[in-house]
TrEMBL record:
Organism, as annotated: Rhodnius prolixus
Identification of the protein by name: Putative cop-coated vesicle membrane protein p24
Coiled coil location: none
Sequence intervals crossing the membrane: 7-28, 191-213
Domain GOLD: start-end pairs: 47-129
PANTHER family to which the protein is assigned, alphabetical: TRANSMEMBRANE EMP24 DOMAIN-CONTAINING PROTEIN (PTHR22811)
Keyword Membrane carried by entry: yes
Main location: membrane
Keyword Signal on entry: yes
Subcellular location: Endomembrane system; Membrane
GO cellular component, as recorded: endomembrane system; membrane
Amino acid sequence: MLILDSFIWLFFICFAISLVGTTTSPWYEDLPAVAMDYKVHVDPGKEDCYYQYVNPGATFYASFQVLRGGDGMAGFAVRHPSGQLVLPYQWRPNAEYQDQQSTGGYYHICVDNQFSRFADKLINIYMTVIRYDQWEIYSKELEELNLSVENFTTSIQSVERDINQMLQHQNHFRGMETRHYNLLVDNNAYVLRWSLIQIVVIVSTTIMQVYFVRKLFDVKNTRPRA
């Protein structure tokens, strides 16, 4: 069950449009950068898996966080397009994986809630695909116009990497904030519920004690025998 709370971050659209030609792959797979943010409900005892295409030579990043549910932990695994399990399953609240120079293909990302038999989990999944090699093409196109863009390209690449890292950190802290808020809400509900139960128990015990003490002092009307 997937709650679609996703966005695809696309920058340098004018440059990307020139790169999208006649191809059988989805249109977004040829863009220089793609970022996706999902919030997923995983039912108890279930496993949800997703596929993400990564261009050859691109940088792939994936992370997950358990926002709400049960013990606050789940399994997360990433399988390389070659079939190798590059990030094995571990029961934990969050995890991340990064491939700086991907060989290309579809990565297999799975979230496992099979150890939880009763509690569903709300999971945040964040993925980015960055194609830094596209900067070289961009630089060559500008050099054909007799422009010196070496410093400009280097600066923009540095800014792009910093922005990407900043977005990753923002997503991580946003997930932590949501997780902490849900934990506070659950703790508040827990305290209120048990407080009401204790009040009911105390009042019931008091009423029973008063009743039985009064019964001890009850005097029955008896007639004296001659």
